[in-house]
Write a structure and sequence with these properties.
about 280 residues, alpha+beta, four-stranded antiparallel sheet, disordered N terminus
Length: about 280
């Protein structure tokens, strides 16, 4: 027969060893640390799995515009932006990329991959959305419909700074708040509802270099440039279009271009489809 447990046959309870308070605190700290590490390891994959999807338009339509090359140049590109929706008509894919990534044409590398087809793009967000958010949405749309893949890189290059050369530039505040327009007749150009950032983008094409807005002028403006008298000058033959435009804005608008060398962020096109996917 098994011998009984000694203390059960007596009035004596087994001895209880008390752990000193200092050890109890250390044990508590160790347990808390293990619990915190375990909670962190559990929460990291959960957080990764909950990464928010990039913003996208609720509905979007992308259609190729069937138009002859001659008519394509006569019909201007139009971009109208309102909180929550955007309308692009008769636009090149380069114009869409410029607007979506907020870069100038000269900053896009790999343009030989882009087609010269014209498109109509109508897109609407779920609610009224500020323009910076809509630019991100347009990036998502270009990746989805045109399979656009691109990356940014920085390089130091020659550029121009657009600055104010007179106390009162000859610009008229515009009542419009949509997009800019440029109308040309002979050697005269009329700019409507144009920001200085948009004007700098226009100038970058004639100067064949990035133009950075350093005017500090906010808002949209209406103004005209007439290059007829400057184009007739003897020095225009040597300087070409870049010289004529630069002289015109200084004489007629009170603005000027200053040559600088700065690091410029380039958008490099890695891949893009020849035609968009269906709606």
């Amino acid at each position: 027969m098994r011998s009984p447990i000694p203390w059960r046959n007596s009035w004596e309870a087994p001895a209880i060893t008390f752990v000193p308070r200092t050890i109890t605190k250390e044990y508590t700290r160790r347990m808390y640390k293990r619990f915190a590490i375990g909670l962190l390891c559990f929460s990291i994959p959960f957080a990764v799995g909950q990464t928010a999807a990039p913003p996208a338009f609720e509905v979007a339509s992308v259609k190729q515009v069937l138009i002859s090359p001659q008519d394509a140049h006569r019909i201007p590109e139009t971009v109208e932006v309102h909180p929550g929706n955007i309308s692009m008509r008769n636009v090149l894919i380069t114009s869409c990329i410029k607007w979506a990534y907020e870069v100038q044409l000269i900053q896009i590398s790999g343009r030989e991959k882009l087609s010269f087809d014209r498109y109509e793009i109508l897109a609407k967000a779920e609610k009224a959305t500020p323009v910076p958010q809509m630019r991100l949405m347009m990036q998502v749309l270009l990746a989805d419909r045109f399979k656009l893949e691109a990356h940014r890189e920085t390089k130091e290059t020659r550029a121009y700074a657009l600055v104010v050369s007179e106390p009162s530039p000859r610009l008229h505040a515009s009542g419009g708040d949509v997009g800019s327009s440029v109308r040309g007749k002979n050697l005269a150009l009329a700019f409507g509802s144009t920001t200085m950032l948009e004007f700098a983008d226009f100038l970058s094409m004639s100067q064949r270099a990035p133009v950075i807005d350093k005017t500090g002028l906010q808002g949209r403006f209406d103004f005209d440039i007439n290059i007829t008298p400057i184009a007739a000058a003897p020095e225009a033959d040597q300087g070409g279009t870049a010289f004529v435009i630069a002289e015109a804005i200084q004489r007629q608008l009170g603005l000027k271009l200053e040559s600088i060398k700065v690091p410029i962020e380039m958008l490099v096109i890695d891949r893009i489809a020849k035609a968009p996917t269906g709606n």
